[in-house]
Amino acid sequence: MDHDQIETGRDEKLKDARALLHQEISNAVAAGLVDVTNASKAVDERMSALESRLDSQEKEGRKHDLPGSETESFDGETYNFGRVFQGLTASHTEGIAAFEKYCPMEYSMSRELYDMGTVPDTAGGFLVPTQVYEEQIIPLLRPQVIALDLGITQLPVTGAGVVEIPRETTGPTVDYVAENNANTAADLAFGNHRMEPHTAQSYVKASRRFLQLGVGADQFIRRRMAEELALTWNQWILKGTGASGQPIGIYNTTGVNTVSFANAINTSPTPDAVKPEFYLALLEMEDALADANALSGASSLGWAVANKFVRAARQIQSTDLGGGSAGTALEMGRKVFSAGMETNILGYPFRRTTQLAGGSNTEAIFGDFSKAVLATWNNLSIEASNVADDALQKRQTHIVAYIDVDVAVTQPTAFAVSSSLDLSGI
After folding, report:
1. Who contacts 171 (Cβ-Cβ below 8 Å, separation ≥6)?
2. Which of 176, 197, 240, 315 could cross-link to 274 by cystine, CB 3.0-4.6 Å?
3. Taking residues 338-367, what's their average pLDDT?
4. Which element (helix H / strand E) includes 398?
């Protein structure tokens, strides 16, 4: 039920009540119990009291309208970031009354979250409920954060503390055993991985006039925040360094398989042709997972690759196709126009990203992304100001959204990464 439907229902209630009152007063006038003047005054007083009561009930009901909860009272009336931004901006001049004026439901949610003991926000910002974050932000992040699209395990964490998850430190081995002989014990060895909050933050500037546009502004800023958060998440998940506040990403995790592409490109006089060895290196990445027993039964196998990696795969040469010393492109290169855009490499889906290098050391990751974990702490937090920096002069609102995350690889051998791949001349 949207806002217009709510208003229509309210008007119908008032109409019915007004009709009953008129009938009641008419009967009283006809019976000589009251004169017309006093009857009109009684109608007005009773209708005013009824309208005030309905307004109070609506306002109180909306304050407790937590989308997705069992006590939701206004189906379809969702959390609105535009109202939040207006309330935050106006609060600098109007104080706490601005929240009740522009975003009573959202403010009530935020206060309830503070009372639950979630991360305190002394700057007066907003905490966005988890279900709102999952319903309105995560769908926007999913197509942009390629690890989400490839099936990374998501772990919502409540509270502000650290969390420990089991992690494989030594994988199993297989021995060839003769009859009546025993193999060497090589049990799996496990350790704990400590996950700690790392703050990913989005910073957006918006015109105050733009914020007054309503739904359009709300959707636009939501998308922009998601885009900014996605860039950080992609970098941290795939290639976080563990320094400068970053978690350690897949590429830099100890124990992942490394496959060299050093012989895949012609290097003399310059890198200018992709040799068949590129294809063999792709197979070696697949074999690395198979040898670690991470290929069979994997649930989320896929590739995260730099843009140039895809281009190189389309330019693989083969002297076996009658192309002379330079060779001709393999089938993948001939599919560009005949079969549309490729979606798989060796039968596994791939996703491009600018967060992996694409030059003299082009990077690619192949693996079972369910063996990596993305943990998120508490709720998305939003703060806004129209006086920060030069915002006041430019009639802008500066919006900051942030959430704490961490990344962990629970089975390093379920991933293989490229090395020594020079595509600077491709």
Report:
1. 188, 292, 293, 411, 413
2. 315
3. 86
4. strand 396-409
- DSSP state, 129? P
- Based on the fold, state whether residues 152 and 56 are members of the same structural domain: no
The count of structural domains within the chain is 2
Q: Which domain holds residue 325?
A: 147-168+194-426
Strand partners, 262: none
Tell me what the mean pLDDT of segment 252-275 comes to: 82
Same domain, 419 and 274: yes
**Strand ranges in 296-371 using DSSP code E only, listed in sequence order:** 301-305, 317-318, 328-329, 344-345, 348-352, 364-368
Query: Which residues neighbour 14 within 8 Å (Cβ) at sequence distance 6 or greater?
Result: 47, 50, 51, 54
What DSSP character marks residue 265? B
In a domain, 128, yes or no: no
**Which residue in 300, 372, 251, 298 sits closest to 151, CA to CA?**
300
Domain ends where: 35, 62, 89?
A: 62
Averaged pLDDT of the chain:
75
E strand map for 255-325: 257-260, 301-305, 317-318
DSSP assignment letter at 247: P
Q: Does 39 lie in the same domain as 161?
A: no
Residues 271 and 391 both lie in one domain: yes
Contacts of 25 (CB under 8 A, 6+ apart): 34, 39, 40, 42, 43
pLDDT tens profile 295-351: 887 889 999 999 999 888 888 876 554 444 455 555 544 444 455 567 889 889 999
Q: What's the whole-model pTM score?
A: 0.68
User: C-alpha angle with apex 248: 245 to 250, nearest 5 degrees?
Assistant: 150
Q: Is 65 exposed, middle or buried (0-12, 13-18, 19+ CB in 10 A)?
A: buried
Residues 58 and 156 in one domain: no
117 within domain boundaries:
no
Rounded CA separation 253/412 (Å): 7
